[in-house]
Amino acid sequence: MAIKDTPEEWTVTASTTPFTGNKTSVRTDEVVMPDGAKVTRDYQVHPGSVAVLALDDEGRVLVLKQYRHPVRMKLWEIPAGLLDVPGENPLRAAQRELYEEAHVKAEDWRVLTDVYTTPGGCDEAVRIFLARDLSEAEGERFEVAEEEADMELARVPQEELVRGVLAGELHNNCLVVGVLALTAAQRGTGLDALRPADAPWPARPFEA
């Protein structure tokens, strides 16, 4: 049996937006259940994100340590950012985030995996890219602010990140999924068999 997520949309009889923030909002939908009952579902509406697992020639992954206020922790993460413009090309957004957060560019890009971070309460979709053949970007460094001004940057061996994930020491969603997906791909058909960087993304359709 093929295991594959499938699109489906249950009837929504009413929808309101009780909160609108700077980047996201909260929506309340009245949804018709299979038995005909109506229930309300509150969820965060999110523009979507991209993340970059940047792997260097020594098998190290580029990671950043950043304060995350909702969980009151500094988390090790891979470079990531919002899709600020509707229809924005996710590859270009990922290249921008890698440049802005790490001042790094990459010559080889692949789609590592696509995920919904918290589908029970948020519609955020994230495309995680694999970036290889890394080098320092040209020009001046991007000027960071707020939480990003306190970021730490490191290159950590892949196996150390896997160990930290399984030990419960690393918690960022994109880092966890990205590192484990990378390891699975290496042990499977290989990194060159990953989807191309411009592969379709139904969760967030984009322009070429």
Sequence-ordered SSE layout with sheet pairings:
Blueprint: E1 12-20, E2 25-32, E3 38-45, E4 49-54, E5 60-68, E6 73-77, E7 80-82, H1 90-102, E8 104-116, E9 125-136, E10 152-157, H2 158-166, H3 173-187, E11 195-196
Parallel strand pairs: 4-9
Antiparallel strand pairs: 1-2, 2-3, 4-7, 5-6, 5-10, 8-9, 8-11
Helix pairs in contact: 2-3
Q: Mind summarizing the main beta sheet? A: 5 strands, mixed
Overall pLDDT confidence: 94
Helix-strand pattern, N to C?
A: EEEEEEEHEEEHHE
Strand content: 35-45%
The CA-CA distance between the termini, in Å, is 34 Å
CA-based shape: globular
What structural category arises from helix and sheet content?
alpha+beta
Task: Tell me the total number of β-strands.
Answer: 11
The radius of gyration computed from the alpha-carbon positions, rounded to a whole number of angstroms, is 18 Å
Uncertain segments are none
Q: Helix coverage percent of residues?
A: 10-25%
Strand order of the largest sheet: 7-4-9-8-11
DSSP summary: helix tally: 3
InterPro entries: NUDIX_hydrolase-like_dom_sf (IPR015797), NUDIX_hydrolase_dom (IPR000086)
Keywords: Hydrolase
Protein name: NUDIX hydrolase
Pfam family, one: NUDIX
